[in-house]
Write a structure and sequence with these properties.
CATH architecture of the largest domain: 3-Layer(aba) Sandwich
CATH topology of the largest domain: Rossmann fold
CATH class of the largest domain: Alpha Beta
Structural class: alpha/beta
Radius of gyration: 22 Å
Number of domains: 2
Largest sheet: 7 strands, parallel
Helix content: 25-40%
Length: 328
């Protein structure tokens, strides 16, 4: 039996994670390390499905070069690199993997928080420079402090659970919580201004939208406690980086940990690079062996369901496709 659907997977998507497609004789999977390879364009011409990570931009031009394309899968949570509106116009479903990197992102959040609170990065640097700075590297305990979670989805909730194990009190701000989700949270739900004023640690887990862009800017930073810490593993544009650098330099907040940036890679002129008590990592939230397999498994299963069964349950643009087709 010849394959019915050709799927191109690029950006080094986990081979093991493509098992839902490889194990189904209806699918032919073509793996290409990078979309910059010469053969990517020719393979795309006959592809019914495309799976990418963050390195490939799926814009209107790419969609035009893929006339047979029915589904685009993002092996990860965010779809910033996919023009969802253009895909919807062409009737191309967009699926992602919202659950696959939950634990990895939550664990990196904890790693950044602990590193900043105990000044691990500074201590390591001072040791390598031949100093023994015990007296100047006093940290703080998390026990008894208040964690403010902005965005109580999978990752935010998982971080909250781990911080409770450290003896922290948890408050949450998320205007889109359902009644059922509220009941599950075991946290105090507050308005944003209250969270900024009360939290000793603020961790961000929100998508980048018009509403969240610059959410933590000069005004928000002024409302935070002087001894507070900020951790961001959501999207870079959620934090005003220049304002954060000023707040750290002026000692208005105690420290921060960032994994995402408005421009990636981080430009050498970024004010963040000279800010004190700031731990920077290069977008490693999903960069564990386990997460890379899990996000690939999840997106491959969702893409298979869409192509083989017409199941758009997991398509983030299902409603838009229906409207474009005149079905709603």
């Amino acid at each position: 039996m010849s394959a019915t659907y050709r799927v191109v997977a690029t950006d080094r998507v986990s081979k093991k994670g493509l098992a839902p497609l490889r194990d189904d004789e209806r699918f032919e999977v073509v793996r290409i390390k990078s979309s910059t390879e010469a053969r990517f364009g020719s393979e795309l011409e006959t592809a019914a499905g495309l799976i990418v990570r963050s390195a490939t931009t799926v814009d209107a031009r790419l969609l035009e070069a893929a006339p047979e394309l029915k589904v685009v899968g993002r092996a990860g949570v965010g779809v910033d690199n996919i023009d969802v509106a253009a895909a919807s116009e062409r009737g191309v479903a967009v699926v992602n993997a919202p659950g696959g990197n939950t634990v990895s992102a939550a664990e990196l959040t904890m790693a950044l928080l602990l590193s900043v609170a105990r000044r691990v990065s500074e201590a390591d640097r001072s040791m390598r420079e031949g100093r023994w700075d015990r007296a100047n590297l006093q940290g703080v305990e998390l026990r008894g402090r208040t964690l403010g979670v902005v965005g109580a989805g999978r990752i935010g909730s998982t971080v909250a659970d781990r911080c409770r194990a450290f003896g922290m009190r948890v408050i949450v701000h998320d205007p889109y919580l359902s009644a059922d989700r509220l009941a599950e949270l075991r946290s105090v739900v507050v308005e944003m201004d209250q969270l900024l004023a009360e939290a000793d640690v603020i961790t961000l887990h929100v998508p980048l939208t018009d509403e969240t862009r610059g959410l933590i800017g000069e005004s928000a930073l002024l409302k935070m406690k002087k001894g507070a810490f900020l951790v961001n593993l959501s999207r870079g544009g959620v934090v005003d980086e220049a304002a954060l650098a000023r707040a750290l330099i002026e000692g208005r907040i105690a420290g921060a940990g960032l994994d995402v940036y408005e421009t990636e890679p981080l430009p050498p002129e970024s004010p963040l690079l000279s800010a004190p008590n700031l731990v920077l990592t290069p977008h490693l939230g999903a960069s564990t062996k386990e997460a890379q397999v899990q996000v690939a498994l999840e997106v491959a299963a969702n893409l298979r369901a869409a192509l083989a069964f017409g199941d758009l349950t997991h398509a983030i643009n299902a409603a838009e496709i229906a409207r474009a087709a005149g079905l709603s």
